[in-house]
């Protein structure tokens, strides 16, 4: 039976167990998880937060991380500006990025979700409105969600991966984990 760990990755930490090759060590998984034999299935950038799945099963790890399996990954995206219907339609039909057209995404404007505060908080500009989008993708290019929202005119201020398949970050504070 595969061991599956659900971890709420805090902002500013790396999705790996070590930080070799830098003068100043940054926070890593080893600062939060002391379980031998589990490895992350996919990554989240240092400036992204939310659900990271770890497992001791290499086949499951590949199935979660490999875009060919098209496992849905849902993100709560705080963006600069109030997202209009035209931008949502573009996200739903695929967005042209430098590395090609993305697959169609599920995209909905949402009210600000009841999530943990970010530390440090995002920079808010009083004269520029902001909004939230729930975006579900089935591929995983480098910084894809940020590039998609920017391509439709709404730069990302905060990015939270909320779910991977049926697994969610619900009930997990940043830095907490549980077995699935």
UniProtKB/TrEMBL annotation:
Record key words, sorted: Isomerase
SUPFAM superfamilies for this protein: Pseudouridine synthase
Enzyme class: isomerase
InterPro entries referenced in this protein's UniProt entry, alphabetically: PsdUridine_s_RsuA/RluB/E/F_cat (IPR042092), PsdUridine_synth_cat_dom_sf (IPR020103), PsdUridine_synth_RsuA/RluA (IPR006145), PsdUridine_synth_RsuA/RluB/E/F (IPR000748), PsdUridine_synth_RsuA/RluB_CS (IPR018496), RsuA_PseudoU_synthase (IPR050343), TruA/RsuA/RluB/E/F_N (IPR020094)
One Pfam family of this chain: PseudoU_synth_2
Ranges for domain Pseudouridine synthase RsuA/RluA-like: 4-151
Gene Ontology molecular function, alphabetical: catalytic activity, acting on RNA; pseudouridine synthase activity; RNA binding
Gene3D superfamilies on file: Alpha-L RNA-binding motif (3.30.70.1560), Pseudouridine synthase I, catalytic domain, N-terminal subdomain (3.30.70.580)
E.C. no: 5.4.99.-
GO annotation (BP), single: pseudouridine synthesis
Protein family (similarity comment): Belongs to the pseudouridine synthase RsuA family.
PANTHER family the record matches: PSEUDOURIDINE SYNTHASE FAMILY PROTEIN-RELATED, RNA-BINDING S4 DOMAIN-CONTAINING PROTEIN
Protein name: Pseudouridine synthase
Species: Sphingomonas populi
């Amino acid at each position: 039976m595969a061991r599956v760990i659900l971890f709420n990755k805090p902002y500013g930490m790396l999705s790996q167990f070590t930080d070799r090759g830098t003068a100043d060590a940054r926070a890593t998984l080893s600062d939060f998880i002391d379980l031998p034999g589990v490895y992350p299935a996919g990554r989240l950038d240092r400036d992204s937060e939310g659900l990271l799945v770890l497992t001791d099963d290499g086949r499951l790890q590949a199935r979660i991380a490999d875009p060919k399996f098209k496992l849905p990954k849902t993100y709560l995206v705080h963006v600069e500006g109030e997202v209009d219907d035209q931008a949502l339609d573009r996200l739903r039909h695929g967005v042209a990025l430098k590395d090609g057209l993305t697959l169609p995404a599920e995209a909905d404007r949402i009210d600000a979700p009841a999530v943990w505060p970010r530390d440090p908080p995002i920079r808010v500009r009083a004269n520029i409105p902001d909004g939230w989008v729930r975006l579900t993708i089935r591929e995983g290019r480098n910084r894809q969600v940020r590039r998609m929202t920017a391509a439709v005119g709404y730069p990302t201020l905060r990015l939270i991966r909320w779910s991977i398949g049926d697994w969610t970050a619900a009930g997990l504070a940043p830095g907490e984990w549980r077995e699935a």
